[in-house]
Specification:
This protein has ten helices and 19 strands. It is an alpha/beta fold. The longest helix has 13 residues.
Length: 356
């Protein structure tokens, strides 16, 4: 069956329908990872977006147990070629069947290289995936330009708190759309991790007497999370060690008076170099974000820039002055991507041991 990707600038790509046949409107973003498509699909940070995979062949090892949340989150999926005959000893099914079961529409057979270049030059755009061959551009384009993602954090968070048992420090993980490997990375180090919904009050977190607090990744515009930011301000005022990743990093900065801005086309993939300013070392990181913190808007008396992106100089992390708090824009838990920066979990462990 034919399928069409229609962008808000009027560009139309024609290809083949994959997955669900429903029609969707979403923000169109691209990911440069060569592997890890299942982790990408199950990353809650993609809520409200359709993902273009720049690697030309997707699905060649099928569906494996490598999932990062309870379901797939993108509203749409765009690939150059979808592998119909996967081969892997861990394979449990095809990507086509997975997309159908998850009710995610997609399109294959289009020039994803041309699409990615367009998104890089013009910036992230909204788009529609449809199987309707009789679409009317005059009707569709106003709808595309009017689309907004909304409060996707509350869609992506867990509904009730739950605990993963451990024999070490107690960590309160604020779930703004957390990937499973954040909790796994802490559990591997012996932590007892209690995962809390994004709407949890700071007073309830503090009352649980955690040894450390983790602020997770998540989807959407950080400036829309006004209620959460107010609660993070209260967590900041405590002496509890805090480690924040991606959206959590942005929210902590906003809680301290910084500003965020939307990147032209974001950072999404497993090959982004970041420099640790404390030692000058460069690490290859996994990233997935469309917004960044303007480091110039955060007072040097509050936080010092700890990491920068080697490609474009954007901020990638802060160390907060006089506080046991550090935050990073990238994903040290990887999945997918390199694990170069996994040592940051060890740094967090050391911070908690110092308090304990």
């Amino acid at each position: 069956m034919k399928a069409f990707l229609i962008l808000e600038d009027g560009t139309v790509f024609a290809g083949t329908s994959i997955g669900s046949k429903k029609e969707i409107i979403s923000e169109i973003v691209f990911n440069t990872s060569m592997t890890g498509y299942l982790e990408v699909l199950t990353d809650p940070s993609y809520a409200g977006q359709a993902v273009v995979m720049t690697y030309p062949l997707i699905g060649n090892y099928g569906i494996t147990p490598d999932i990062e949340s309870k379901k797939a989150w993108p509203k749409g999926y765009i690939v150059r070629e979808l592998s119909r005959l996967p081969s892997n000893f861990r394979c449990e099914g095809t990507l086509q069947d997975f997309l159908e079961k998850q009710d995610i529409p997609g399109i294959a057979g289009i020039d994803t290289r041309a699409l990615t270049k367009m998104l890089r030059e013009k910036g992230t755009m909204n788009g529609m995936i449809t199987v309707n061959e009789d679409f009317d551009l005059k009707e569709i384009l106003p709808k595309l330009k009017a689309y907004r993602m909304g409060d996707v954090v509350m869609e992506a968070t867990c509904e009730v708190p739950y605990t993963l048992k451990g024999h070490g420090p107690k960590v309160a993980l604020m779930d703004f759309g957390a990937k499973n490997n954040i909790a796994r990375s802490l559990c591997k180090r012996g932590c007892e991790v209690t995962v809390y919904p994004a709407s949890t009050l700071a007073a309830d977190i503090i009352a649980s007497a955690p040894d450390g607090i983790m602020l997770s990744n998540g989807p959407g515009d950080p400036e829309m999370c006004t209620t959460i930011i107010e609660e993070i301000k209260k967590l900041y005022e405590t002496d509890i060690p805090i480690f924040a990743i991606c959206l959590g990093h942005q929210l902590m900065a906003l809680a301290n008076g910084a500003k965020t801005y939307k990147l032209k086309y974001g950072h999404r993939g497993g090959n982004h170099p970041v420099k640790d300013l404390s030692n000058g070392r460069v690490y290859i990181s996994s990233q997935n974000h469309g917004y960044a913190v303007d480091a110039s808007t955060l007072s040097a008396t509050v936080a010092k820039e700890a990491f920068v992106n080697v490609n474009d100089g954007t901020n990638e992390g802060f160390s907060y002055v006089g506080k046991n708090i550090f935050t990073v824009q990238f994903h040290p838990e990887a999945c997918p991507g390199p694990q170069d920066s996994g040592y940051l979990f060890d740094r967090f462990m050391d911070m908690m041991k110092g308090v304990r």
